[in-house]
């Protein structure tokens, strides 16, 4: 497990927990955030393209 994998998992984990907490305490419309994250995760399993890995790759090359 490389450093980008750990960072990716941390970013996704924080986004999921934050979205759930915001939906519970603020507005149920934050569930859209969780839905978008889920859709991106499913599409990346089929296509192999993940926006977070792409961004981390661009950042780490600089």
Topology:
Elements: H1 3-25, H2 31-47, H3 51-61
Helix pairs in contact: 1-2, 1-3
Protein model, in words:
The protein is mostly helical and about 60 residues long. Helices cover about 80% and strands about 0% of the residues. It is built from three helices and no strands. The radius of gyration is 13 Å and the shape is globular. The mean pLDDT is about 90.
Summarize the structure.
This protein has helices at residues 3-25, 31-47, 51-61. With 62 residues, the protein is mainly alpha-helical.
> Could you tell me the radius of gyration in angstroms?
13 Å
Structural class: mainly alpha
Low-confidence stretches: none
- SSE succession: HHH
Approximate helicity band: over 70%
Strand content: under 5%
Number of strands: 0
Estimate the global geometry from the Cα principal axes. Answer: globular
Give the averaged pLDDT, no decimals.
91
What's the end-to-end separation, in Å? 22 Å
Main beta sheet, described? Answer: none
Number of helical regions: 3
Summarize this structure as a short list of keywords or feature phrases:
single chain, 62 residues, mainly alpha, 82% helix, globular
């Amino acid at each position: 497990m490389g450093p980008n994998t750990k960072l990716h998992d941390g970013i996704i984990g924080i986004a999921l927990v934050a979205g759930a907490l915001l939906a519970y305490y603020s507005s149920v419309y934050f569930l859209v955030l969780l839905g978008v994250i889920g859709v991106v995760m499913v599409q990346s399993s089929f296509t192999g393209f993940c926006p977070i890995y792409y961004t981390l790759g661009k950042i780490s090359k600089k």
